[in-house]
Design goal:
single chain, alpha/beta, six-stranded parallel beta sheet, five-stranded mixed beta sheet, 7 helices, 11 strands, 32% helix, elongated
């Protein structure tokens, strides 16, 4: 594949390494300095785009790329209020699109385990539930997209919750998510059930960004010659 990388920071460079290792080539490396080249990306020079920027730029980037009929893998979070619009744009322009709060295989296994634990705890009285997440200080959105997805997965089982609260106790049926930012933490997420007697928790710790990057490359390999809107869990064959 010929792949355009949009967002050439730490993550973009790791993605580049996996792409080259797996026999692909890089058509564009787009960052702030050459943002104007985004409009030059088309199906003649590029097979698929991988977008890892941030919450303030992702929607505009995707609107250009998907609007030009490009298949896109998006790992940016914090912009999901516009997700339906971009998905509909992909269908309208007869291309392919996948966005995920986390492309790591391990994290998506963690989501499945979190739902199983929630089913066990559903009828146990007296346990409060919360989510803790810790990331590097360069992460701009809080809570993380992964933490929000985790809260949605748990809420699909524990139906008393509607949405989440950030860094505060559970109020108005919202699941509390506590977000910390520390130096050099790729990403840690923990689902916690707690009462006055004990605590039961399920944790995923990322040791580096490799899992996120490799998952994004696998997703690009999957969608580049297809049409439609996909999820990372169907791409990774974690669901039927």
């Amino acid at each position: 594949m010929k792949v355009a990388i949009i967002g050439y920071g730490k993550m973009g460079k790791i993605i580049e390494g996996f792409l080259i290792e797996r026999g692909h080539s890089i058509s564009f490396k787009i960052d702030k300095e050459n943002f104007h080249q985004l409009k030059d990306i088309n199906r003649e020079n590029t097979d698929v785009c991988i977008e890892f920027t941030g919450p303030n730029s992702a929607k505009a980037n995707l609107e250009i790329l998907v609007g030009n009929g490009m298949p896109v893998v998006c790992g940016s979070t914090g912009w999901y209020s516009e997700l339906t619009f971009i998905q509909e744009l992909a269908v309208k322009n007869d291309t392919s699109f996948v966005a995920a709060s986390n492309f790591s295989i391990g994290v998506n296994l963690f989501f499945e385990a979190a739902k199983d634990l929630s089913k066990i705890m559903k009828n146990q009285d007296g346990y409060g539930v919360s989510i803790r997440e810790t990331h590097h200080t360069q992460k701009l959105d809080a809570p993380s997209g992964t933490a929000i997805t985790l809260s949605e997965e748990v809420s699909s089982v524990l139906e008393q919750f509607e949405g989440f609260s950030l860094n505060e106790e559970a109020v108005d049926a919202k699941m509390p998510i506590y977000a910390l930012r520390e130096e050099d933490v790729p990403g840690t997420h923990e689902l916690v059930f707690r009462n006055e007697i004990d605590e039961i928790s399920l944790k995923h710790i990322a040791f580096n960004r490799n899992g996120f990057a490799l998952g994004a490359v696998v997703a690009a390999e999957y969608i580049f010659d297809k049409k439609g809107v996909f999820t990372i869990r169907e791409i990774l064959k974690l669901i039927g």
